[in-house]
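quick one before i forget lol
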Amino acid sequence: TIIDSVFSRNDLDKFLRAEEIIAGAQHRYIAGFYGCRGVADLLAVHMRRIFPATTALLHADADTIAQAVNITPNDCLILFSYERYADMAIKLADIAHRFGAKIIAVTDKITSPIAEGADVVFLSENDGGSFFNSSIALLMIAEMLALVASKDRYSEIESHLDLIDEYLAKGN
């Protein structure tokens, strides 16, 4: 199944290496376009609860490039892209390489252009049996990344979420 493929193609050590990169980054950029956009956005929401210094890059436009050129060697880019939709993703990977940031690539093939030179590459099955690419494996990888990134930060995250809940409870 698609879910089984996540673990057969990506061992626990990959997730732990990714966690080290994510936790050690000063700022996290999470990017995904087209069919990968929703999963990248969801991961960005989760990561902002763990690490406030997180930026979602979800639009294939000049503003995304303008934000991406702020990346530094102390940052990381988590990049979701299927090979055939990789144009903007390739540009972001190039920017991250140029400025020395760590790259975690989530893609469908090891030959995907964004996999080249990435620090960690997660492979995602995308054949869901229909015309559209399946997001199930991408979502599972994103959930695992959020899980490993949060594993040693529960009290910090809980305190942050309590503060958010306090303000949300106040209403308008």
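fyi The chain has seven helices and five strands.
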